[in-house]
Write a structure and sequence with these properties.
Blueprint (H helix, E strand, L loop, with lengths): L2 E5 L4 E6 L4 H10 L7 E4 L5 H13 L2 E4 L5 E4 L7 E2 L1 H4 L9 H8 L1 E5 L12 H9 L3 E5 L2 E5 L10 E3 L5 H12 L4 E5 L5 H12 L3 E3 L5 E5 L7 E4 L4 H14 L1 E6 L7 H9 L3 E5 L2 E6 L9 E2 L11 H8 L5 E5 L9 H7 L3 E5 L2 E5 L8 E3 L3 H13 L3 E5 L2 H6 L3 H7 L3 E5 L1 H7 L1
Parallel strand pairs: 2-15, 3-14, 6-7, 10-11, 18-19, 22-23
Antiparallel strand pairs: 1-23, 1-24, 3-5, 4-5, 7-9, 8-9, 11-13, 12-13, 15-17, 16-17, 19-21, 20-21
Helix pairs in contact: 1-2, 1-7, 4-6, 5-6, 6-7, 8-10, 8-12, 10-12
Bound molecules: ligand EPZ.
Length: 429
């Protein structure tokens, strides 16, 4: 398997472009299933997860063309299957997002249950309960969800109240409600910017939708939806990741195309830690001088709180802070897999239940490391930027799922980083 190797100690300088958001693009692609007219998406990142969603949708019969590197047209005019098979769903949990649109448009859908995941149990019960609230008959058998719309083949608008916030369940229900009869109200909906982006596309396709970005969303279902064109919003998690890269390595970088308004909680925390963050014409400018960052406590929360998808990266930063910080993970039950690997690089971290006490150390040392999910992997890249000597990160396929041209972007800002092909990495081990 390929490795990424980082030799730490270089400050970062220059301009780093921010890609379209993976977690916005995936539901937007699924939304194309709602119409027989083409949907064009711009600013779609080139990532393994996008390729997985492309494969799944093609299997349903969606014709997908990528006109250039970042534009994509999806045409769901001729759907050949309403089944999402295990082999494709198990590769990426976001595949479950085809359930709502397939059921709403075709009156039936069979979707494999995604199964467990490295960061937690991650059930989809809220998705299923919400669809049942719209009149669907939902059964589980053979590892699959079998869902059917009521007599007549159309879901009925209704009131769906989520017991806690789920991004994916909110998205699935918004898409299902878009073709349901009458009005649907989602209560305790997720407020993430990706929800707002999906609402914008649905509105462009003809849905009347109000309240996206608040905890109550109203959706007036339509019998048929049209095509649309839409630009994917900038990736706030990629933005936060590179802001923390600059914070840990030191330097002065403009994150081009970034929208600071999408990560206010993150910026507040970084500024309190002594990192310079300012909005400039091109995006966000992030700076850190010679003084180390200061330890600042942080707790993950649903939006607009500090995102769980930046917890691992923030922890990497805090390992070299002056002083200690307490980091609490409230969204996923098993999202500290980076802790032992950071420990192998010299970090001082004690975990107690959902909290990690990080005592800053003067420096980290490079080591061979690996991680079991996307954000944990990138936290090790960040640690490598600050560590003495070389850090070799294995299982690079995790990074390929969510960071477009990671090595090129960091190298262009002066990081000493490269990707080593599997054969060479094995020969050198
Ligand atoms: C989305 O996952 C993101 N993925 C995740 O990003 C992100 O970590 C997560 O939201 C939280 O912000 C995509 O957008 C594709 P949830 P999602 O439903 O929708 C529990 C990354 O690194 N839950 O908001 O699956 C669940 O187990 C990824 O890019 C249920 O119990 O997350 C979790 O504890 C990882 N039952 C919590 O809710 C359900 O039916 C929040 O999950 C649904 C969720």
């Amino acid at each position: 398997m390929d490795q990424i190797r980082v030799r730490g100690g270089q400050r970062l300088r220059g301009t780093l472009p921010i890609s379209g958001a993976k977690n916005a693009a995936l539901p937007l692609m699924a939304a194309a299933l709602l119409s027989d007219r083409p949907v064009r998406l711009d600013h779609v990142p080139d990532l393994a997860d996008i390729a997985s969603m492309t494969n799944l949708l093609r299997q349903h019969g969606v014709r997908i063309e990528r006109d250039d590197t970042s534009s994509m047209t999806l045409d769901a005019g001729e759907i050949v299957s309403t089944t999402a098979p295990y082999d494709l769903v198990r590769k990426m949990r976001a595949s479950v997002l085809v359930l709502g649109p397939l059921l709403a448009r075709f009156g039936k859908a069979t979707v494999s249950l995604p199964g467990g995941c490295a960061i937690g149990n991650r059930p989809v019960d809220l998705h299923l309960k919400g669809l049942a609230d719209l009149g669907a008959q939902v059964e589980i058998g053979g590892g699959y969800v079998h869902a059917r719309a009521p007599e007549g083949g159309r879901l009925r608008g209704g009131r769906v109240s989520f017991p806690f916030v789920s991004v994916g369940a909110t998205e699935n229900l918004m898409m299902a409600a878009a073709l349901a009869m009458g009005e649907t109200t989602l209560i305790n909906a997720a407020r993430e910017p990706e929800i707002v982006d999906l609402a914008r596309l649905l509105a462009a396709m003809g849905v009347v939708i109000e309240g996206a970005g608040t905890d109550t969303v109203h959706i007036q279902g339509r019998e048929r939806l049209g095509g649309a064109e839409h630009r994917v919003l900038p990736d706030r998690i990629e933005t936060g990741t590179y802001a923390m890269a600059v914070a840990i390595a030191g330097g002065d970088v403009v994150l081009q195309g970034a929208d600071g308004g999408l990560i206010e909680a993150v910026i507040d925390t970084l500024v309190r830690a002594g990192v310079g963050v300012e909005t400039v014409d091109e995006g966000l400018r992030v700076t850190r001088g010679v003084d180390p960052v200061i330890g600042v406590d942080m707790m993950t929360e649903p939006y607009p709180g500090f995102p769980t998808d930046l917890q691992a990266q923030y922890m990497a930063l805090m390992t070299v802070a002056s002083g200690a910080s307490m980091i609490t993970e409230t969204i996923f039950e098993n999202r500290f897999m980076h802790v032992p690997e950071l420990g192998r690089m010299g970090a001082n971290i004690t975990v107690h239940q959902a909290s990690a006490l990080v005592r800053g150390v003067p420096g980290l040392t490079g080591a061979p490391v690996m991680a079991t999910d996307l954000r944990a992997s990138v936290s090790l890249v960040l640690a490598g930027l600050a560590a003495g000597g070389e850090t070799a990160i294995s299982r690079v396929y995790h990074l390929d799922r969510g960071y477009e041209r990671l090595v090129e972007k960091l190298a262009a800002c002066g990081a000493d980083i490269d990707r080593v092909a599997a054969a060479r990495a094995a020969a050198e081990e």
